[in-house]
Write a structure and sequence with these properties.
By secondary structure, this protein is mainly alpha-helical. It is 54% helix and 6% strand.
Length: 292
């Protein structure tokens, strides 16, 4: 009898210990799952916050901080092409008519067409499609305008990144547009000695050259990148060289701001008749112009 009591006691103790360990395990796993969920959410918030800071600081990257007057200048004129009018005007049902549009729409389309050709015509993703689409840059611009003005398109275009949400009807054009917006970083490959060599120089994102501003915003030639300068001027290298020289003069105070502005305006010789001088701002400053 005593043995039976002892056996039952031992079994009871083992049952209690087993239950306790099981409960501890379940509690631990529950906390672990909750912790992983919390960390995943926190990580996502941190990534979003980091991307937001990157975006907010992108325009100021590599630029010197100068006087409040210069800061005000940067807010009223940008080194990008403002394409908002292109996105707000319904595209004609005829692509040829649209590409020949007069006025500001035609000016924007003309510059954008040349810019796309300069940036991507030698890239494989573009060149392969261009074999079947000889007017690929025009087709892309027309497709952008059509997609932006679809009845069901609810994009507000408050930021240039909204272009990535356009719904193209043509899968081929959509793929090309995706590559243009994404850009590609340079890639490197080790040679026979183990030294890293440039395998592909990559290409920039089209988003770096465009803006969407609700107010008429001229292109700040002083802050415009090389490809955009090439899409506007007959002699882009002369403009780029003189811009670099004037920056050095301004930095060393060897020329007055007014004198630099007047000097830079000598290059108001657009690449074609579809560029109105009201689209360009030749104001200079001590902000370092981009090198690429």
């Amino acid at each position: 009898m005593n043995i039976l009591i002892l056996v039952f006691t031992m079994l009871s103790l083992l049952t209690i210990m087993t239950y306790t360990r099981l409960q501890t395990f379940l509690d631990s796993e529950g906390m672990h799952i909750e912790y992983e969920g919390y960390m995943a959410g926190t990580e996502r918030q941190n990534i979003d916050s980091l991307e937001d800071r990157k975006y907010r600081n992108a325009r100021l990257k590599g630029q010197a901080k100068n006087s409040s007057e210069e800061a005000a200048d940067e807010e009223t004129a940008f080194g990008q092409l403002n394409i908002l009018p292109l996105l707000k005007k319904p595209a004609s049902s005829d692509q040829a008519d649209f590409s020949m549009s007069s006025g500001r729409i035609g000016e924007i389309a003309g510059i954008l067409e040349r810019l796309i050709t300069i940036l991507y015509s030698k890239q494989n993703f573009y060149a392969e499609v261009a074999k079947e689409h000889p007017n690929l840059s025009q087709e892309l611009i027309y497709a952008i305008a059509q997609a932006a003005n679809k009845p069901l398109c609810d994009l507000k275009f408050t930021h240039i990144r909204d272009l990535a949400n356009l719904d193209f009807g043509d899968a081929t054009l959509r793929e090309v547009f995706y590559h243009m917006l994404s850009g590609a970083k340079p890639t490197y490959r080790a040679d026979e000695t183990g030294k890293q060599r440039l395998a592909s120089p990559g290409y920039p994102s089209l988003l770096d050259y465009l803006s969407v501003k609700t107010t008429p915003t001229p292109i700040r030639v002083w802050l415009a990148r090389k490809a955009l300068i090439q899409a506007i001027f007959r002699d882009p290298q002369e403009v780029l060289d003189r811009r670099s020289e004037l920056y050095k003069y301004l930095k060393d105070e060897a020329i007055t701001p007014k004198g630099a502005d007047e000097d830079f305006k000598r290059f108001s010789d657009p690449v074609s008749t579809d560029v109105d001088l009201t689209m360009l701002d030749f104001k200079t400053s001590k902000t370092r112009p981009p090198n690429d």
